[in-house]
Amino acid sequence: MLNVAYKNSALLTNIRNMGKRNQKTIGIIGAGRFGTSAARELLANGHEILLIDNNVKRLESLAGDCTTAIGDAESPEFLEEAGIKEVDAVIVAIGENESASNHAVINCKDFGLFVVAKATDATHGKILDRLGADYVVYPERDSATRLARFITRSSILDMVELYDKVFMMEINATGPIVNRPLESLDLPNTFGVQVVTILRGDETVFPVSATDVAQEGDRVVVLGPEEALQKLAKAVGPS
């Protein structure tokens, strides 16, 4: 089945284009220290920012560099009017107001967006996860700079639909999928996805075998349902 799919010209084109990251538009809700740090890193790397806060003073320092909107992120009507539905992903970086953070996550997920949310503590992190946040970060562990790099490199933002409910995604070989034979990873049973090929510099490892190993710095192209691919990307996490 994979051999047949691989010969499809559209699939070949998509694989060749993998890794060519385009400019992203990222929404950031919460212009505190964490949110503004992430915004500055993203702007420095050529991405566009929609920065949202209910305090106009917090937006002043970046008003000349990005699009800003003043209002309540707990209101889906306000978020839609601000243009949140047009972004590629959202960082919910609201500070101590957990209720506002939770409502912002719900609203953004209702719009079908990829959401990274900042947790105030472990309990809040569990709540955010159950509310549907695609990735939960903890400021004491995850810096705003590291988060900015992760969200724009996230394979989920470049997921390609090949056929009805069949998607292709490229992930960076890192963490739990590095230096282990594909056979031992058992991705089809663990996540419901299948490795198509491994990209190593200018080399393409295809067809892959059970004994092939992804090395640090490789890119791994996988096929599967959207939800299964999201789970895999979340498990691999920031590189």
From TrEMBL:
PROSITE patterns xref list: RCK_C (PS51202), RCK_N (PS51201)
Bilayer-crossing regions: none
Keywords: Ion transport, NAD, Potassium, Potassium transport, Transport
Domain RCK C-terminal stretches: 154-238
Top-level taxonomic group: Bacteria
Domain RCK N-terminal, residue spans: 23-137
Protein name: Trk system potassium uptake protein TrkA
Source organism per UniProt: Alicyclobacillus dauci
Source taxonomy: Bacteria, Bacillati, Bacillota, Bacilli, Bacillales
